[in-house]
Sequence to fold (287 residues):
Amino acid sequence: MRVNYRLAALIIPLSVSLIGCSAEGEPTESVESAESTSPGVKTTEPAKPVTAADFLDRAEEAMAAQGGWTFAVKGSESLVFQGQTSAASYEATVRRTQAPAAFHSSGSVISKGKRKPEEIFAIGATQYVKEGGDAWKHGPVSDPDMKNKVEDPVAVIGEFRKYVQESGDDVTLTKEGGKVRLQVRSGSRKLSEVRDRSFAEKAVRELKPTLKQLQKAGVSATEDQLTLSRLEETLILDPETYRVESHRFRFDVLIPYGGQDITYGQDVNEENRGVFDGDIELPAGVN
Fold:
């Protein structure tokens, strides 16, 4: 989810689109249960999850066991150059149903002290967006710009599964403080070194609209010259129910300019607020 605003604090006159994160994948429907047999025969209990893949399986089942969920989303995005920062933030309530699959976000972008409402629907293969007093816009959910506007913690389960399949070393699993934590982390390295990894691909997609604007304004840096100075993505599960409790994605990229670096940063946090048992439908007149 992004907002256009002018980065007046920077020396170069830039107009940059900011705020956004996304996710892909749909949960499958299955409910974990113990099998009862005839008297005198032992009941078979499901094996306890051990690996990251095991926990993702349980999380997928737990989230699919309910018709829908509500999440609180907060995000921020910034550019820093020569010690000066220009930033915007976003707050929204997200509702996500699974049968049928639908997404609704209602929130606002805050930039330079001004608040602008934004509402998003994703139903089937089409996404609908309304920003401030503008008319509704729509497009395919597969469009990169549309993907950047959707925060879907349920679909993040599928993303982490892809991380595990690509390289088991990318995802760490820890159980501490009464929580199950799955995490991907990357230290400072050239973006080109991890460009083919899914976690880096998501960061690149989020960065691209801003990089294009910077290039139009005179920043000549190309993608292969960028440095991913930090990336951290964390999925927190309840250790008993395996439900998604929260998801956080944050990263910083260094963009060379004039012998120095412009730092682009993004930080999005999603918190589970419980079951949603309603329906998601487009407002009257939107098609």
Notes: The chain is about 15% helix and 45% strand.
